[in-house]
Amino acid sequence: MDPALEPAARTGLVSPGDPAWAEWDDVGRLRTACDAALRAARAAIRDTTRLTRLLTILSESGPLDLLLDRMLLTLSELYSADIVVLLDPTGTGAFAPLAAVGLPEEMLHQPLSSAENGYVATVMRSGAPILTAAASADSQVDSQLRELAAESAVWLPVVDSHATRGVLVLARCQPTPFVHAEVNLLVAMAYRIGLVLQEAQRSVQLERIVRAGREISRHLDESVASSEAVRLFPGVVGANAALLVLRDPGAAPVCVAQTGLDPAWVAACRHLAEGLFADPRLATGEPCNIADLPAAMGPLALDSPNRCPARVLLAVPIQREERMRGMLYALRFAPTPFDPDTLQVATLYAGQIAAALENARLYRAARDELAERVRVEEALHVSHERFRALIHSVSDVIAILTADGAIRYASPAVEALWGCTAEALPGQNVLDRVHPEDADTMRNLLSQVCEQASLTLTGAVRLRQGQDAWRDFEVILVNLLDEPAVAGIVATYHDVTERKTFEQELTKLAFRDPLTGLANRTYFRDRLRHGLARADAEGQSVAVVFFDLDNFKIVNDSLGHACGDQVLRVVADRVRACLRRDDTAARLGGDEFTVLVEGVTAVDQVMPMADRLIAKLRDPIRLEGRDLFVGGSMGIAISTPHQDSTDDLLRKADLAMYHAKSSGKGRYAIFNTQLNAAAMERLDLETELRQAIQRKELRVYYQPVVSLDDGRIREVEALVRWQHPRRGLVAPDGILPIAEETGFIIELGQWVLEEACRQVRAWQLRYPGDPPLFLSVNLSARQFRHAALVSEIVALGPSALDSRSLTLEITESVLIHDPVGAVAKLEALKEAGVRLAIDDFGRGCSSLNHLKRFPVDTLKIDRSLIQNVEQSPHDKAIVQSMVALAAAFGLSVIAEGIETREQAARLRALGCSLGQGYLFAPPLPAKALEALLEEERGYIGPSEVL
Fold this sequence. Notes:
Layout: H1 6-11, H2 19-59, H3 64-78, E1 83-89, E2 94-101, H4 105-108, E3 112-113, H5 119-126, E4 130-132, H6 143-147, E5 152-159, E6 164-172, H7 180-217, H8 222-237, E7 241-246, E8 254-259, H9 263-275, E9 288-290, H10 293-296, E10 312-320, E11 323-332, H11 340-361, H12 367-379, H13 384-393, E12 397-401, E13 407-410, H14 414-417, H15 439-449, E14 456-465, E15 469-480, E16 488-495, H16 497-510, H17 521-538, E17 541-549, H18 552-559, H19 561-578, E18 584-589, E19 592-600, H20 607-618, E20 621-623, E21 626-628, E22 632-638, H21 646-662, E23 668-670, H22 673-692, E24 698-707, E25 713-724, E26 728-730, H23 736-742, H24 745-766, E27 774-779, H25 781-785, H26 789-794, E28 806-811, H27 812-817, H28 819-831, E29 835-841, H29 848-853, E30 858-861, H30 863-866, H31 873-889, E31 892-895, H32 901-909, E32 914-915, H33 926-937
């Protein structure tokens, strides 16, 4: 019986079957329906009230954690839930409480473990809610909830616009189940919570991007900016590690920075990151999210996955002018893919990096930085607030224009760059601020950019700063007229005034010698090339004057480079004073200078200027309280119409200058064909000399040093000869100057030393004596200054001559050129065990102070003093004093150039015990000298000529 009819039946007045019974039946049903409707209305009001309270909380502003706490407290109150927990996945199979009501303090700071088939994991995978009325006995319920005596519980997916991002759990400790109506409302609220979390994450990520962008942009060094960008990237996108790979044009990609990687993983991760450049998935220029890294990468996978736990990879291209500049990678060690919002954030961050790298590479500003910023602005078109945050953080003027150039918005940078406030610009036309000469350029840019959506154009214009000043700008226009968030043309104006000024200065410096202010080699060659072309067209010639300073090296080495630079500046000023208005003077480098004289028809027109310049160079230069005399040698070459090139004329002038030097310095010489022939002859001789060792054309001759008392050979001096196939036997004066000038003297001297040591060692064994036969070898200036001289002497080893039997001869002029350095080198040679001699002693300005400081063993008196020792009392007195001086210092003396018996007798009488000269023997080949040794010391064994 219908419950609504029970009252009528109890009266007994009406019973089933009576005619009135049907009327009572209809009334009862109506009453039942009204009761149900009333209950539904009350439930709807209750649900609406609940929903209103919850939505009110979610719509409030404030810190996210406080908002979630209020939300969960309200859910606990409205649904009589003893426990309310919002779980966030940690990526390791567990879930951490993001907010909670009813959990003990110790559970708030530890993850809730969840089995793979548990309700939390199931809801995360399926995205559907789960209810249970017997939680304490259900194995799929988390152990922590069972410990808290939860009975009835519901697990709700917290989703956003992309995916499930967490689980909302409500539990009652009483066996009061959640009904479906409650669950439906809770599902809606969980979705709203997901959107709140998503928006909060976006805000946090955007805030991090802004902070990171400012931090990166502070660094102007590309490597520092790269390291800083990589360090901040994991915090922006929620990753464990990051790498940055850059590629220069035409080069292989290189990993320039990484963070969060164990040292054992670095090599494998670098290899992976660099290899991904060739992956077709990244060729689109869009960010790529690889969710299962070990399975997806194939041969590029990390070579030791157990050592490196990377499971998910995000690759974000870094582009410049539509060209791949690099790749930014983020690694997660948990199998949690990056969501679309994170991809967008990563794209924005990559834009910040690209802008920072360009800023560093182009000294704080460059075209690609602007393009990257525009690209970032395009990526931010969905959010006007994000767009405003970005453009407020950059130093460029960013404006939104209409199609005809009217300004709708301008960033605050206009105050510094345009000299007006941003508030005063809307409504004005940008063309009114453009320089009149650039107005058509700006107008054409606006017209062209409007032809295609999203089109990007660049240009260069000048804009007014204040009322009268103009500044140079690079402008980038992007057509975003069809983008609802912008609805205009985004114009980025980058101030390049300082860069243009700097470029102009660089252009000027590129053609000027920074030390003297004269033209440099590049500019001089260019002027000479154009001058030759004009001269050929007009039937005239040009003259090149080439000179260097005769004594500059002495000044530079003795007084230092600072004084040398000052000398060069003074010389440059004197050169300018000697020139005509149209002449061009240049410093080619070192102490080499050139002058170009145009409009010449005869060499006589150049000589007055050359005379003035030679005279000016002879004048002393007053520097640091002393007068310096440098002088100069000059070569002059006149062009032959339609024949001489730039190199030809410079070479001819150079040859003439060297001829002037060889003729006595301090003068000029004019090029002629004989000089060219001599230069070619010298070049051939130099080439053949370099091949002489391999061709076995060099010979070592030996001149004996004898005792003036008994005439026995005590020592031999090694002298080089060249047995030329066409020129015959070439003496040292035809070999040594070329070898010294070209540096071949090092190799030549080492060869002579090794050959002579082996030969004399063989003679010592064949003709023993006490003391044994000594060997002396000359060292040139370049050999003596050679850094490896001592090590090469030591390297001769025991198989060669005993170092105590070897004497190295150094001329007096070489030693006094740098006395301090000479003493150090001589002491090092003495430590190696060799004997030292001063050759040609007495030719220069001998100094007792120098002689006292130099650790030498022997003085060799120059032949110029020996020749007149019989006739000249002056020379006799000098020789006598030298012998006495040597005795006082404990040195032996050898007289060079003895040609007569009278000279030998006189020297012996003066106390000189050793002599050398043609009286005893000229320089001899080894066989001839061996014959003398055999005659003097006796025959022992076969010939030892090597």
